[in-house]
Design goal:
By secondary structure, the chain is an alpha+beta fold. It has three domains: 50 residues, no CATH class; 166 residues, no CATH class; 160 residues, no CATH class. Helix content is 55%, strand content 14%. It is built from 16 helices and five strands. It has a five-stranded antiparallel beta sheet with strand order 1-5-4-3-2, with helices on both faces. The longest helix is centred in the middle third of the chain and has 60 residues. About 10% of the residues have low confidence.
Length: 509
């Protein structure tokens, strides 16, 4: 199923929670661009569903502060908010904080652009050298896999001949297969003296058919009767069949040895590939981080905040803070309640800097200018947060994944087949029948006769107390914790917004 079909089915679902669950399930089956686009759809739904709304309105909580200080650095603003979010009480909110996004774009004539470009170029050169080695190893691994598959086909004939349970027809087919291989790969090296050339060019018409027909060097047929052949064909056939017999006995051992050697060599090549891949990833990630993103307006035109002739830049980064809501903090009776998921009160801070980089020393810049800070509140589950973090962490590194992991993933089935050690067959042991509790089956059938009618008895009650927007049947405890997460997220968002304004001598009320 493609992305368009998935989007069509998702749009037919009733609520966002159902759509989120649907996308999570389908995301596992997608690859490449479709997977990334589906992840974007999933994250958009999660943010929409988890956004805390203002009381009585359908607008999400969002506060914006624009701080204009061209005479001072903007770094203290970022670190003040970071420390306040994760600092302990009474000087902070005690939340876990992650930086989930960071992008920048500099004007064409700025010194900052030139220096970042040089650093990115060094990382890109090193990454490309590593990727060249990775590509060489991949080609080697592909060739080894093809060789091992051919060896398996050859060795299968020997296995059938040695198998006591194989039928006579199977053994005959395996024998004929080995003879064909010997003719095509061994005897052909004799040139004009090979059986195939003698039969085709020198009119030894019966020679090839006789070689496949006779049972052994006695030149008798499968039924034990002698084969009627002229003397010249008989002399050639006896000599060649003796050569074939020796080859068949020795090639089994030689092929088995070479098969094991190449399997071991394949393991070393795969280990080397994984090692070089791990070495290449940091360089690719650093090159991606040093690379700039072109900021555009809603119409797709270049951002007016960046002027080619100016020495300025635009930076966009996000902090995501979360705090788990324990069941015991909602009500003392929930202290020992075990939930299927965790609920978090979350605060997101998005920084949009428009700066004039000032050189403070060699390779050091101070960012002065304007900062627009947006405060948002969310109530999310642990699975929601995992999806958000995966998206933010992978959206700029999808190329790294494609270059380093996908190529190996395509070969994974063959690699698992050839690199995994064969497990010894466990001897079948009869299980001894232990002690049986005499009343073990006394409640058998209880669920089918009594449990099912009771199962949906309180459904109407849960429908009345469940908060809207979650979707599905949410138990009372989880609904209470989810409401508490929304309340706590709104409180924390207001606190960090208000304290920041007061600490920086802005108007507050």
């Amino acid at each position: 199923m493609g992305l368009k079909e998935i989007q069509k089915e998702a749009n037919a679902l009733l609520n966002n929670r159902a759509k989120i669950s649907f996308y999570r399930e389908k995301l596992k089956k997608l690859e490449g661009d479709d997977r990334m686009k589906a992840r974007e759809e999933l994250v958009s739904l999660i943010r929409k569903e988890g956004a805390v709304m203002l009381g009585g309105l359908n607008d999400p909580v969002e506060y914006v502060i624009t701080y204009d200080i061209f005479g001072q650095g903007l770094e203290p603003i970022y670190f003040w908010l970071l420390d306040f979010l994760r600092g302990g009480k009474p000087s902070g909110l005690g939340m876990d904080v992650d930086k989930i996004d960071e992008q920048f774009d500099a004007s064409a004539s700025s010194a900052f652009l030139g220096e970042m470009g040089q650093r990115a170029g060094v990382m890109q050169d090193r990454a490309m050298k590593m990727l060249e080695l990775v590509n060489t190893l991949i080609r080697s691994i592909i060739n080894l896999i093809y060789d091992l598959k051919e060896f398996e086909i050859r060795l299968e004939n020997y296995k059938v001949l040695k198998d006591k349970e194989a039928s006579s027809d199977q053994k005959q087919a395996a024998e004929l297969g080995l003879r064909a291989i010997w003719l095509d790969q061994v005897d052909m090296k004799k040139g004009r003296g090979s059986i195939n050339n003698l039969a085709q060019q020198l009119q030894f018409v019966t020679l090839r058919d006789a070689f496949f027909y006779i049972k052994d060097e006695s030149l008798k047929g499968p039924d034990g009767s002698p084969v009627d052949l002229n003397e010249r064909v008989t002399r050639i056939l006896k000599a060649r069949f003796l050569e074939y017999k020796v080859w068949k006995e020795k090639s089994d051992d030689e092929l088995t040895k070479r098969y094991k050697i190449e399997k071991h060599y394949l393991k070393t090549q795969v280990a080397s590939l994984k090692l070089y891949t791990q070495w290449a990833k940091p360089y690719l990630r650093t090159a991606q981080k040093l690379g700039m993103k072109e900021f555009t307006t809603k119409s797709g035109l270049p951002s007016p905040d960046i002027v080619a002739a100016f020495n300025n830049m635009v930076m966009d980064l996000k902090l995501f803070a979360k705090s788990e809501i324990k069941p015991g903090s909602v009500h003392s009776n929930f202290q020992h309640t075990q939930l299927s998921k965790k609920y978090y009160a979350c605060v997101e801070l998005q920084f949009r800097y428009r700066t004039l980089p000032k050189i403070m020393g060699q390779g050091q810049y101070m960012q002065t200018g304007e900062a627009a800070i947006t405060f948002r509140a969310f109530a999310l589950t642990d699975e929601d947060i995992k999806n958000l973090e995966e998206y933010e962490g992978l959206k700029d590194l999808e190329l790294v994944h494609q270059l380093t992991d996908v190529s190996l993933g395509q070969l994974q089935a063959d690699l698992d087949h050839f690199t995994q050690d064969e497990e010894p067959k466990a001897e079948e042991t009869k299980k001894k029948k232990g002690f049986e509790w005499p009343l073990g089956n006394v409640f058998e059938g209880f669920e089918s006769h009594i449990g099912k009618p009771v199962k949906g008895a309180g459904k109407g009650f849960w429908e009345m107390i469940r908060p809207p927007g979650l979707g599905g049947e949410i138990p009372f405890v989880e609904a209470s914790i989810y409401s508490k997460a929304k309340e706590d997220a709104l409180t924390k968002c207001l606190v960090v917004y208000d304290i920041f304004k007061k600490a920086h001598r802005m108007t507050a009320w």
